[in-house]
Amino acid sequence: MGKQMTEMLKGTLEGIVLALLAEQPAYGYEITARLRDHGFTDIAEGTIYALLVRIEQKKLVDVEKVPSEKGPPRKVYSLNPAGTQELEEFWTTWNFLAQRIDQLNSTTANSTATNTTNKEN
Question: Which of 64, 75, 112, 119 is the most exposed place for a label (fewest CB within 10 A)?
Answer without folding.
Answer: 119
